[in-house]
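Internal QA ticket QA-208
Title: Verify multi-chain structure generation after dependency bump
Assignee: T.L.

Test input:
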Amino acid sequence: MEGEVTVEAELPTQRSVLDALEAQYPMLRGTIRDHETKQRRAFLRFFACEEDLSHESIDSPLPSAVSEGREALLVIGAVAGGQDFFDASTL
Amino acid sequence: MSKVRVLAGTRKGAFILTSDGKRADWKVDGPHFAGWEIYHMKGSPANPDRIYASQTSGWFGQVIQRSDDGGATWQPVGNQFSYEGVAGTHQWYDGTPHPWEFKRAWHLEPSLTDPETVYAGVEDAALFRSTDGGKNWQELPGLRKHGSGPQWQPGAGGMCLHTILLDPSDAKRMYIAISAAGAFRTDDGGETWKPINQGLRSEFIPNPTAEVGHCVHHIAMHPSRPSVLFMQKHWDVMRSDNAGDSWTEVSGNLPTDFGFAIDVHAHEPETIYVVPIKSDGEHFPPDGKLRVYRSRSGGNEWEPLTKGLPQENCYVNVLRDAMAVDSLDKCGIYFGTTGGQVYVSADAGDSWKPIVRDLPAVLSVEVQTLP
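Actual output:
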């Protein structure tokens, strides 16, 4: 789940970029955002241009540096470590 | 000569352990899906090269993997588990209503006859089925909508559907178990379900003998006698001789009747195995001694099996899906620990040795006996 991917989106927003990413890599569906609500998974964050965009509207335009391809939209696992609150070891 | 393939799901990846029928020398392959929690892997009885795996992470959620070559290569298939209709609420830990939310698949149970059909037991508790090799999943909503759903509550591991038993003599009958709701049975292929918890007693619910609310940890069945069930409950080892309609306690002389795993000998339907764990607060073997207990009488009378297992300073757990048997003669018994050991006994439990000692915490163990 690492690497940089370039996708085309007419009006680059979180939604349109992730739509394009999932169209190119269908196995990513459901792993970054919910299949239906499109809500970001709780333990992922979206960063760009050294800013945290995780709580921006998914339909807001991305920074121009991202839409122009100069900067990446980063999908980052939260430092919490990827464990859910409940797991098998706490049975 | 026969071979065995052990599918070990761990907290940080999947491992495939293979040996010939002697079960003395092992090849360890993995980790597959390194870094991901592999809650369960299981092969199709109808085509052993078809294996399904439940791969999850707190970051990225659920992925279902499928292999068509015995685990050498894998491809992700469908991971959309959508509850049918309005999901509704179940009880939260504090007794308040909490909306049903999908978290992960705990157990994958391939059909006995069709490699393309597989059932998934998920958290929050529901049963899903795929009939196209895992690409698409549909809920069998009759279980969740049985009516008692608002009274179900999570065990400490979450509100998970962790056990699925398919009756080899009746394609319409199956059993499932949920922590903490209890056991349920369908006799019509999953359309309708009935709770089968009569005889269970659980002190942590207001009515200890209620119809639902019991923390069933695992159920095992011998395929030749599918109406005889053995259960490891939160506390108590139980058996039913009438397809779960009623249960009686068979904990007998066990040092503690708390535990997670339970299984049945492949050729002796009255020979069963458990791994007693000290208590709900102390998830390790009593006295630091890792002992499998075997009953040859279907319960009540138990003998400790210790040869080759650590008998001092051992404080690992054996989780509910982490014990399995092969069908060789003599029957092989396998279990994995949260300390990363996978143990094998090639003589029905008389003696044990570790196949591997230092894997990540083992979440599940399944065994395939291959020609």
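Spot checks passed. Residues 36-360 of chain B form a domain with the Methylamine Dehydrogenase; Chain H fold (CATH 2.130.10.10).
Status: verified.
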